Amino acid sequence: PHSRGRAGPDKVSGLLVAPEVSELSPLLRLPKGVRRGYALLPPLLKVLSAQGRQSWENGVPRLQPDSRALRYMKRLYKMSATKEGIPKANKSHLYNTVRLFTPCSECEHRHGDLMKGDLRSVDLLFNLDRVTALEHLLKSVLLYSFDTSVPTSSLACMCHLSVKEQDSSSQVCPSDSHSVAFSLHFEVRKRKWVEIDVTSFLQPLIATNRRNIHMAVNFTCLMGDPQHNTKQNDFINMALVPPSLLLYLNDTSEQAYHRWNSLRHRRKNPTRPRQGSSPFADTTETEGRTSTQSRRA
Amino acid sequence: SRRRRHESLKEAPASPHYNLSEYFKQFLFPQNECELHSFRLSFSQLKWDKWIIAPHRYSPQYCKGDCPRAVGHRYGSPVHTMVQNIIYEKLDSSVPKPSCVPAEYSPLSVLTIEPDGSIVYKEYEDMIATKCTCR
């Protein structure tokens, strides 16, 4: 079970069979024996039935994610796993969990006029309840989706980030606890997404199991090359929606897949016996069996 | 067994090559021996496709079949399996025969929507059986 600090399957107790499963035809329904012992469910079923249960628990339907965010995550899935869902053996791919959070809608206070797509500064509140204590942060990114219809060659942007501290719920306007400003330069030709790495900025907050992160992002961009004195007030059509927060995590729980572990496991596989060690050892047989047909052939 | 094979060959009708290999199979390995079987499910069958975005289909596979008496190293079985078989056959048949179970697995990547609307990509260990053993 995860530590009590964060949300996790252990928070949901009792019989955890997603309601849809109970409507299923009997052959797909979980056998009685399994229903009794919730802990018998393999981790994925546990998580899923917990989710199934939660989405109906308080009668509130599951919140639907932003379609752009869903498109981005589907693209990430295609890059990280094969069509059958097997994780790709990619050296740079150290994460085994990626979480995408969209800001809570009721907390946005925009200073620019969103309708004209001119978004200079926005207040964002991200709720990280779903991050468990066993998930360790590898990288965090603010993800802007751009309206690529704007004819831009290249962009030089100044981004100013500040995290708001809301010590007590009574405090009305949170004060800035720490902030950072940095410039970035990128080509927005076909790219629909721009990732702004905020790992070092958010690391201390996430490491202390902060559940809510409240930040103000001020983003000003100039078209063309900053060396040539472009007009200061030329704002491109900024991201038409507030950014999402992407967390690349290493889940250290047992049910999560650990690349380094699987390599180690292969070398020391206990089911592979030592040849000739047993009094009954068959001298002719080879180890392991994937399928009889291929053996016979 | 050579004489029996010879006699049965005489009886065996002249037939194209593949019948012959089928015919010999009965001598090589017992039928329905412990092996890996394929099983594909789609999350829409379980009505979980509301929150499992990918993959659409999943093949967990499973192990089924009889464990031969002298398993030896054929399945990577330890000596204990042999001993258990002897106990079952000669001492106490209430002790179960060795069972055909998965020996190795591969992971699965899953993309799901969380109850709060956030989206998570996760890689789970041991989700697809890739090899069987007798234990």
How would you describe this structure in keywords?
heterodimer; A: 297 residues; alpha+beta; four-stranded antiparallel beta sheet; 7 helices; 21% helix; globular; disordered N terminus; B: 135 residues; two-stranded antiparallel ribbon; 26% helix; 32% strand
Question: What does the radius of gyration of chain B come to?
Answer: 22 Å
Radius of gyration of chain A: 25 Å
Question: What amount of the residues of chain A lies in strands?
Answer: 15-25%
Quaternary structure state of the chains depicted:
heterodimer
Shape of chain A: globular
Architecture overview:
The complex is a heterodimer of chains A (297) and B (135). Chain A is an alpha+beta fold and 297 residues long. The longest helix of chain A is centred in the first third of the chain and has 15 residues. Chain A is built from seven helices and eight strands, in the order H-H-H-H-E-E-E-E-E-E-H-E-E-H-H. Chain B has three helices and seven strands. Chain B has 135 residues and is of the alpha+beta class. The longest helix of chain B has 13 residues. Chains A and B meet through helix 1, helix 3, helix 4, strand 1 and helix 7 of A and strand 3, strand 4, strand 6 and strand 7 of B.
Helix-strand layout with pairing:
The complex is a heterodimer of chains A (297) and B (135).
Chain A: H1 19-23, H2 32-36, H3 43-57, H4 67-80, E1 97-101, E2 121-127, E3 135-145, E4 155-165, E5 175-186, E6 193-197, H5 199-207, E7 212-223, E8 244-251, H6 259-267, H7 292-296
Antiparallel strand pairs in A: 1-8, 2-7, 3-6, 3-8, 4-5, 4-7
Chain B: H1 2-11, H2 17-28, E1 35-37, E2 41-42, E3 52-54, E4 57-58, E5 62-64, H3 79-91, E6 100-113, E7 119-134
Antiparallel strand pairs in B: 1-5, 2-4, 3-6, 6-7
Brief overview:
The complex is a heterodimer of chains A (297) and B (135). With 297 residues, chain A is an alpha+beta fold. Chain A contains 7 helices and 8 strands.
